[in-house]
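HUMAN: Quick job: go over this next protein and say how the chain folds.
***
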Amino acid sequence: MLKKMEFFQRQLTVRKPQQFRAIVVDVRSYGLLVELPDCLITGLIHVSALPDDFYQFDSVRLSFVGRKTRKSYQIGAELNVIVCRVDAPKRQIDFVPVA
């Protein structure tokens, strides 16, 4: 696990960070929990990091729906992400979707 954390911390300093394929595994009021199936790492995409719109949490459907675009993020959705923050002591990784 520590080696994976070191790898993701290095991604923060790289000029062109690597994109990873992510799958949404849970939807919470504060963001999307995603898993990178190629590395078996779980992380968070905060709701404020979702691009192009203001997203509202739908607790019945467990999804985020954009006000203007009506684009939705729900469990099972696939998207590409890059690393935006790594907290090694807490073993937490935050991601941002690639626009």
About this structure: The CA atoms of residues 55 and 66 lie 4 Å apart.
